[in-house]
Structure formats: structure tokens, C-alpha cells
Design brief:
Layout: E1 2-5, E2 20-23, E3 26-29, H1 46-63, E4 71-78, H2 84-91, E5 101-106, E6 116-123
Parallel strand pairs: 4-5
Antiparallel strand pairs: 1-2, 2-3, 3-6, 4-6
Protein name: 2-iminobutanoate/2-iminopropanoate deaminase
GO molecular function, one term: deaminase activity
Pfam family, one: Ribonuc_L-PSP
Length: 125
Amino acid sequence: MKEVVETSAAPAAIGPYSQATTFGNLVITSGQIPLNAQGELVPGGVAEQTEQVLQNLRAVLAAAGTDLERVVKTTVFLADMNEFAAMNAVYEQHFQPPYPARSTVQVARLPRDVRVEIEVMAERH
């Protein structure tokens, strides 16, 4: 059975979607962008934005009963692939081996013109 995950520790959904859903032991998050829990865009470049996105993901996963250590797949959307190294430097501070599988793509535009959006799939404890 599918369950909806919601937490006030991450920005609320701004459309017809959930912060995350669960299906059995699988947690699938919606893409998180660098908004704080009050829905305000964090200042800074891709490094600061990546940090906020990962903090949001941490909060959503905690609400689902899991954490970043149990992430099996990530998808990273970048506004500019030239910012990959800066994003990756922050990303690798949050994940330990064995690393989750990952896809990273450059996109034409992201919501609110942010630099990065990340979604994950994780196993629930």
C-alpha cells in the first residue's frame, strides 16, 4: 500500500505531489530544491544550494523512517554541468561507501531557477 510522507522540517509541496511516498520498504522522494522549511530560496551558489537540498532530503527521509545511509539511487538535475564538481564536493560529504547509484543530468531550467534539484530512492528501516 502506498503511503504519503510529509514533514514540516522540509519545504511543503508546491503542487499536486507529495514530498515522498512509500511502497513497502521503498521510499521515493520528489525532487527537492534549495528552499528552506519556510519555502524561501537559500542564498548562494550550487554548493550552498546542494547543502540545503540534502538537508531537505535528510528531513523527508527521517519522516519516512529512514536516512541517507539507506539511499540506493539518486538523480541529480543541474542547471549547468560545469557546476558538477562543486555539487559533487558537497554531495560526497553526505554519502559514504557503498555509494548509491546515481544519474546526473543537465536540464534547461529548474523550478524557481535554482541551480540543483535532487531526488532519491531509499530502503526503509
